Amino acid sequence: MNSLGRLFRISIYGESHGSQLGVLIDGCPAGLAITEDDFVKDIMRRKSGAKGTTPRKEEDSPILLSGVFNGYSTGAPIMIAFQNKNTRSSDYANLFTFPRPGHADFTGKMKYGGFNDYRGGGHFSGRLTLALVAAGVVAKKIIKSVNIEAKLIEAGGQKNIDKAIDYAIENNDSIGGIVECRAENISVGLGEPFFDSVESVLSHAVFAIPAIKGIEFGVGFKAASMFGSQHNDALIDISGKTHTNHAGGVNGGISNGNPLIFRVAVKPTSSIAKPQNTINLKSGNTESLKIEGRHDACIALRMPVVIEAVTAIVLTDFMMLEQKLDRIIPHD
Amino acid sequence: MNSLGRLFRISIYGESHGSQLGVLIDGCPAGLAITEDDFVKDIMRRKSGAKGTTPRKEEDSPILLSGVFNGYSTGAPIMIAFQNKNTRSSDYANLFTFPRPGHADFTGKMKYGGFNDYRGGGHFSGRLTLALVAAGVVAKKIIKSVNIEAKLIEAGGQKNIDKAIDYAIENNDSIGGIVECRAENISVGLGEPFFDSVESVLSHAVFAIPAIKGIEFGVGFKAASMFGSQHNDALIDISGKTHTNHAGGVNGGISNGNPLIFRVAVKPTSSIAKPQNTINLKSGNTESLKIEGRHDACIALRMPVVIEAVTAIVLTDFMMLEQKLDRIIPHD
Amino acid sequence: MNSLGRLFRISIYGESHGSQLGVLIDGCPAGLAITEDDFVKDIMRRKSGAKGTTPRKEEDSPILLSGVFNGYSTGAPIMIAFQNKNTRSSDYANLFTFPRPGHADFTGKMKYGGFNDYRGGGHFSGRLTLALVAAGVVAKKIIKSVNIEAKLIEAGGQKNIDKAIDYAIENNDSIGGIVECRAENISVGLGEPFFDSVESVLSHAVFAIPAIKGIEFGVGFKAASMFGSQHNDALIDISGKTHTNHAGGVNGGISNGNPLIFRVAVKPTSSIAKPQNTINLKSGNTESLKIEGRHDACIALRMPVVIEAVTAIVLTDFMMLEQKLDRIIPHD
Amino acid sequence: MNSLGRLFRISIYGESHGSQLGVLIDGCPAGLAITEDDFVKDIMRRKSGAKGTTPRKEEDSPILLSGVFNGYSTGAPIMIAFQNKNTRSSDYANLFTFPRPGHADFTGKMKYGGFNDYRGGGHFSGRLTLALVAAGVVAKKIIKSVNIEAKLIEAGGQKNIDKAIDYAIENNDSIGGIVECRAENISVGLGEPFFDSVESVLSHAVFAIPAIKGIEFGVGFKAASMFGSQHNDALIDISGKTHTNHAGGVNGGISNGNPLIFRVAVKPTSSIAKPQNTINLKSGNTESLKIEGRHDACIALRMPVVIEAVTAIVLTDFMMLEQKLDRIIPHD
C-alpha cells in the first residue's frame, strides 16, 4: 500500500513531472502549531544546490491544504502539497524504450503494463522524498522531546566525502555513501515482540526511501563476528542504561532507553553522465545509453534529512501506540 | 501487531514455557494438500541437536487444528499448534530480578509492567520461530515454483564454521553469523514503490526474527563504496535479466526477475555460560549473573530455515497481491 | 480478513465439527486478572438448553493457552480454545450436494471450490460465536466502567416471545427476532469522522455475526419519516446530555456521551425440520430436503450475549484509540 | 482511520470552508481510461439545485493531480481535488459556542479539544461526500460489468416525495428518507465469513456517509417477523439463482449471485431554519438558536449517488480480493 503507520499514517502521491506531489497525514494530534515556515529548514537540507547534488531547483514551498486551522492542527487529515514547476519532460521521452540501468524504468513498465508515467521516473522518483520530509517535519514537532540526527559518515568508501565527490564528478560518475542515524531520549518499551519490532518497522520505513540497500542496528553486521561475551550490553542502572550500546538501543525488538542507532547503505546515484549499455525493449538489442539531464553525483548527500523524517514518523507512531503522546496537544 | 501480511497473514502466539505455541494462518488458498508430514523436514532443520545448538529437545509435532479437511486446506483459517513438553521453568525463576544481558528480560518487564511471562523469555523466546517455520512450510507449498534457499555463510567472522563454534563452546561463549538467502524464479513486478517495496516488506519480516541485527540486499553495504558505473546492473535481455546482480533482484522496490539475494547479520546467542554483570532490579546493585540451562552456542546455525520461512511468507503475500497465484488450487 | 479491531484485535478459527475452535486476542493490556471462571456466565447465556434453542450441548469450557500468567494477562497474545466434543458429522454428509436454503452451503462451496468443510456449516457455523463471546468477556473486563446490555425485545414479530417460539416449534418452523443493545457510560469522542464512525465500526462487527440482516441506531429507520425539528436532540448541559436520544448516542460518527443504542434484526434460523426445496448440485434437479439434526427454533434467543460481546470488543478498541484505557492495568 | 478498503483504498481530506477537498485513491489498476468528463454525471446528480437541496452552488470540477498520464491510470496513487470557491465562513462564526443540534459541532469540539475547524461542520461536512462520489466514479469504471442503482424510495415517511418536501420547506423544517440500492451481476463468492462479510464491509462504508442511521439487507427488519420457511430462499438452479431474494443476495456473509439489495435510513437534515434550543457552551445556559445559511430540506435527495459510490468502492475491493479484476486493464 501507499501508506505507512498505524496511528500516525502517511500516504504520498505525485510524480516527478506531474503538476504536484504531496503527502496526506492521518492521525496528527489536534492542537499542534504548524506554519509553512516550519518546513523551510528541513526542505532546504534536502534541496539541491550543494556540490554533488543536482542543479535542478524547485521552490519546494509546502501548501497546507487541509487539517490546519488558525495555525493549529485540527485533528482532521492534513494535506500538504508541493507544486512541480521546473520540469523538462522532453529529457525523458525515450525511457519508455531504453530503460536506465539501476532505475525502476524496466520494473515500473512491466508492473504497470506500460501505463506508468515514465518521465523522470514518474511516481518512483526520488523527488517524492520531499513529501516524506514534509511529513517528517510534522512528526518531529509532535515528538519534540526526542532528538534525531542523521549524518553522512562516508561516501564512496571514504571519510573524506568532498574529495570522493569531486572525483566522481570529474569522472562523470556517481558514488554511494553511508548515513548514520541516532535518536536520543527514546522511552523504554516502544515496539512489539516479533512482527512489529523496532527494527522491523524502522527498516520497513527506511527501505521505502529510494536507493537504500542495507540497514544495520547498533554494531550491526559486526555482531556476526563477535562473541556473546563481547556483544552483550551490561545494564548499569535500573533505568536500563547499558555500559556499551552494541544493540543500538533495542532488545527483543523493544526500545531499551539507550540511544537508537542505525546505519544505512545508500547506493550510488543510478543516473550518470557516462554512457552505459541497456536493452532496447522494442528491438531487444543492446545499445549504448547516454543519460541527459541534471543529476546528483552523490544522492547520499541529501539523505540524512529523509532518514530523520522516516525515523520521526515511525517513532511518532510507536509513541502513540504506547500512549506516550497526548491526543490533543494543549496550548503552549 | 502480532501479525504479518496483507492477503496471506500469519499471527503467532505462545510462550517458551507455556503449554503450547502456534500460528494462525489466514488467507491460505483452498485446495492446498497439507499433511503433518509436510512439516517434518523444515522442523528438523530448525531443531536442536547439531553441535552448537541447545540439547533441549522438543517433539515439535505440528497439530492441524482447523482449516484443513480431508487433507486439503479449506480456505478457512489454519491453526497449527505445538505442545511444549520439555520445559524446566525453575531454571528461570530469578530473571524477574536479574535481567539477562542481550535478552528482552528488561524491556519486556518494563513494557508490560512486570506482568510478562519471564520464564525462558516468555513470548519473546526464539522458540516461537517454530511457528514461523510452520507457516513457512505452508507458504513454500503455495509458491512451489519459487526456489528459496538460505545458508549460513560465516560464523564468528570465519568461513570455517565448525571451528569457530568449537572455539566458542570451549570458552563458554557464543558467536554470531551471517546467513545468505537466495530466491529464484521470482516474477517481475512484485512489491510497491516506496512503503511496500520488496526490501521494506522483507526486512520487516526478517527483523521479526529474534537476534537479527542487519540486512542488506544484493551487494548491500558494499554499494556505498562503489561508483554508479560499477554498481548499475546492465539489462541483457527483454525479460529483465541483468549482466550483474548488484541490486539483489530489486529496482525501485520492485522485483526485476533476477534472483532475490540478501544477507542478514545474526548476533551471538545472548545466553552464555560465562558469568556476566547485570543489575539487580530490586537493589540497583551490579551483580554477577551465571545463566543456567541449555543454550545454543551459535543460534545462527538454526536460522536458515527461519529466514527461508519468512521469505516464503512475504513472497506468497506479494504474489497474491499481484494475482500470480490461484485463489483455489485445482486438484493435482 | 479473519480479524477485527485495530489496537484490540481478535481473530477466530475453527469449524463446527473440527476438533476445536477459538480466538486469538491481540492487544489486551497487561495486568488484567483473568481466570477461566470469568467466562462461565456469558458462555451459559449463549449456551443451548432454553426452549427454542438446540438440545446439542457442549461443555464449552475455555482453555487459556497463552498470554495469561499467574492469573494476569501478560500483554502477549491470548489464545482461548474450546474443544468440540459432541459432534455428529454423519448428520451433514450430504450437504455437499444438497445446499440448505438460507445457509452458506452453496456460497461456501463456490467460494472455496468445494474444499470447504461442509459439516455443520464448517467455519461458517454459528458455533464460532462462542469464540466471539469469549473475546467479549475479556473486552468487558477491560472496559468495566461501561455497562452494556442487550436483550431480545421481539420474536416472530411479537412481544410475547415464549408464545411465538412455541408456535414455531409446533410447526417445525423457526422465527426471527429483534435484539436491542444499550451501552451506557460511554465517553464523548469515540469514533472517527467518515470511515471509522461509531456506526461504521459497530455495524461492521455486528454483521460479522451470522443471521443478522439489519441494524439501526437510535430511532433508526423511524428517522426517515421524522422532521428535523422532531429528530434533532437538544443539548441540555455542557457534558453533552441531550433531552431526547434519537441519534442513539452518536453525532457525526462520534459518541456524544449519551447512551449508545442500536437494534439488530435477526433472521429466523435457516435450519428447519419442515421439508424445503433445494437444488441437487450434481443433477441440477429441484429436490425436497429434510434437514436432520438439532436446531434452534429461534437463534435470536442466543444473540444478546453475542451482540454484547462484539459491542464490548469495538468499544475497547475505540477507547484504546482515544487513550481512555491504561496500557498496563495496575494491580487492584 | 481516514481510509476505506484493503486493495482499492480511498482516503479523503478537506473541510467545508477550507481551500479544497479531495480523495486519494490507492490501488487503481493501471490502464483505466479516465478523463475529467467522466465525473460530470455523478457530480451533477449529487449537486445542489433541485428543490429541497441547498442553493449553494459549487463548480465541483475535479482536478486530476496524480496517477493519470496520457488519459490512463498509471497504477500510482490517484489524487483528485476540488476547489472550494463559494464559502461564506461568517455564517458559522458562532458554532464554537452554540453547537447545532444533530450536528457534530459538540462532538467535534470535544474530540479535538476545540481545535477543529468548525466552519460549516469543517471536516465533518457532507460536502466531503463529493470526494466519495469522485472515488465512486473511478470504482464504477473499474467494475463496469456490475450495475449499481440507488434511488430514494420514500421521504418523510411518504412515497409522494415532492409533496413531502414541499411541506417541509413551507414549515422551515427538513425530512428524512429511505434509499434503496440494488447491484446486479455480482459474482458468487465475494466477502468473507464473519468479520469481512459483505454486510459488514458494506455497512461500514455506508455508515461513513453522514446522516445514515440504519441499514438492512434483503427484507431486513422484516426478517425478524418471518418464519424460516418463509424467509429461506430456495435455490432454483446450479448458478445459485433463488426463487425469492429475501436475503438480499448474501448468505453466510458471501454474495450468492442474486442481486445485492439493501436499504438505508437517512435522517432529516440537521440544519433547519426553525429556531431550536441548544446550550451555550460558555455559560451553560439553554438558548434559542436560529441557523442561518443555505441548507437542504431533504438531504436524502442527494444520497443515491453517494450510496452508489461507496457500494462501487466496496465491490471493487471485494472483486480485487477475489481476483475477479485485472491488475492491468488492457487497451480497449
What labels describe this entry?
homotetramer; 332 residues; Chorismate synthase, AroC fold; five-stranded antiparallel β-sheet; four-stranded antiparallel β-sheet; 7 helices; 21% strand
Oligomer: homotetramer
SSE class of chain A:
alpha+beta
* Whole-number count of domains of chain A: 1
Distance between the termini of chain A: 36 Å
Q: Give the largest chain-chain interface (CB within 8 Å).
A: A-B, 104 and 105 residues
Number of strands of chain A: 15
What string, H for helix and E for strand, traces the elements of chain A in order?
EEEHEEEEHHEHEHEHEEEEEH
CATH topology (level 3) name of chain A:
Chorismate synthase, AroC fold
CATH homologous superfamily designation of chain A: Chorismate synthase AroC
Q: How much helicity do the residues of chain A have?
A: 10-25%
Shape of chain A: globular
In the predicted model, the low-confidence regions of chain A spanning at least 5 consecutive residues are none
CATH class of chain A, please?
A: Alpha Beta
